[in-house]
Write a structure and sequence with these properties.
The chain has 441 residues and is α/β, with parallel strands linked by helices. It contains 16 helices and nine strands. Helix 13 packs parallel to helix 15. The two termini are 17 Å apart.
Length: 441
């Protein structure tokens, strides 16, 4: 089949000449001519890349992300602690990411360590290095020190309040400390509730002095067994840490009045010991995440619109069921394009998640579209409208999904479905406004 690409090209030329809106379903203020020209250039480039089968990211995306990387130095935290000592809880608190996202985000680094770059390896704002091999008998930290020492800004040691078998952790920390005595070490005593079962945490938080003076005495009103646990860990790691922060980071469903007990004190301690430039990243984490998200979306929208126009052209073919062969291919290519822009693999599991959320609505609309094509003149308009609107809505739903994943969340099927339908309704309305005399592009 010969695609009517000349019609699509003419459509873009018309849009450029008339300075029409470029985003379906949303009004934009008038742009300067240079901004419009740049946007239309990206739109036309997106379409050309679609036609030629080039599934790589837009040429300026990597430059944009590199610029953001340089502007936003990413703190690197070296986590040292046994399994189940609270490292994942700490990462969850500092990033607000889900446990499942954190677990899948860690990647092997050395034989005994792994690395997690948040929110995405393409544009990390925080990096966590996890020395998981410290649990293994005879663990030798030499390889991990060689890999981590040049980049780690702070070492965070995690020890459970009631676990005093910390010989391997201490041995590894001694070697790490020798490699760089100027690098700060924060000792966190975790899971405090295990030392005081069925008792509330002491409030207000009574360990503030330890944040500035690791040898400060613990107030008498703190339960005796908890005081003894913290003191024992301070003795065991004497001379190897600069700050001590007792914390108890739990999940809301665990039922503790303060699930992030000591969390803000930990964050303040990290801010105190980080270099100034990196401190700002932790302070401005949300704003920096939003900046990266906006950079991705700016490059993704032209891709979505390019595929939307192709889908509208396919949907306008007046022969029933022809576009049911074409449209899935168009939308699949769009999905892989967007996945690469966001630095997220389009796995089978993700396809199933997205399909479960929007698949039923898409199938029903496709059947309506095919049935309408048996009606002369009306069928092409209905087919183009539904094809374009569903493709645009799917593209925006993919962006919504990938943005959330980059922020450390996985949207629920209901949230995806709601977002998809909102975008479909807006796109369908706008398409009809833009094409009052028929559905062809």
């Amino acid at each position: 089949m010969i695609w009517p690409f000349s019609a699509i090209r003419d459509r873009f030329r018309t849009i450029r000449e008339r300075n029409e809106r470029i985003t379906i379903g949303r009004e934009h203020p008038r742009r300067e001519s240079g901004q419009v020209g740049g946007t239309m250039s990206r739109l036309w480039d997106a379409l050309k890349r679609t036609v030629t089968g080039d599934s790589g990211p837009p040429p300026d995306l990597e430059a944009t992300l590199n610029e953001l990387r340089h502007q936003t130095p990413a703190p690197v935290f070296w986590l040292l602690g046994k399994t189940q000592s609270g490292k994942t809880s700490m990462v969850r608190f500092l990033t607000n990411a889900d446990d499942a996202v954190i677990g899948s985000g860690f990647r092997p680094c050395t034989r005994t360590s792994r690395l997690y770059q948040f929110p995405t390896p393409d544009a990390p704002l925080l990096t966590f290095l996890d020395t998981r091999g410290v649990d293994e008998p005879g663990y030798d930290p030499t390889e991990d020190i060689a890999a981590f020492d040049p980049s780690a800004h702070v070492v965070i040691v995690t020890v459970k309040a009631t676990d005093f078998a910390q010989g391997n952790v201490r041995h590894a920390l001694e070697r790490i400390r020798e490699a760089s005595r100027s690098r700060p070490v924060v000792l966190t005593v975790t899971c405090l509730h295990e030392a005081i079962p069925r008792q509330p945490h002491p409030t207000p938080y009574p360990f503030n002095e330890l944040v500035t003076n690791p040898n400060a005495p613990i107030p008498e009103h703190v339960p005796q067994h908890l005081r003894e646990c913290i003191d024992e860990h301070r003795r065991a790691f004497a001379g190897l840490f600069d700050v001590c922060v007792p914390i108890d980071l739990t999940k809301p469903e665990d039922g503790f009045p303060e699930p992030n007990y000591g969390g803000e004190e930990l964050k303040q301690a990290l801010l105190n010991v980080l270099p100034a430039a990196y401190r700002q990243t932790l302070l401005r984490l949300k704003e920096a995440t939003d900046a990266l998200k906006d950079a991705h979306l700016r490059h993704a929208i032209p891709i979505v619109l390019g595929y939307t126009s192709m889908a509208g052209t396919a949907g306008a073919v007046p022969i029933p069921f022809v576009d049911m062969v074409l449209l899935p291919g168009i939308q699949a290519k769009m999905a892989h394009h967007l996945a690469r822009i966001y630095g997220q693999p389009m796995t089978l599991e993700r396809l199933k998640e997205l399909g479960a959320a929007v698949g039923v609505g898409m199938v029903s609309r496709q059947l309506v579209r095919q049935a309408a094509k048996f009606i002369p003149f009306v069928g092409s308009a209905v087919g183009a409208t539904v094809a374009a609107a569903s493709t645009y809505a799917l593209g925006r739903a993919l962006c919504y999904y990938f943005e959330a994943v980059c922020e450390g969340h996985v949207p629920t099927p209901d949230a995806l479905r709601k977002f998809y339908h909102e975008q479909y309704t807006a796109a369908e309305k706008q398409w009809k406004v833009d094409h009052p005399k028929g559905g062809k592009v």
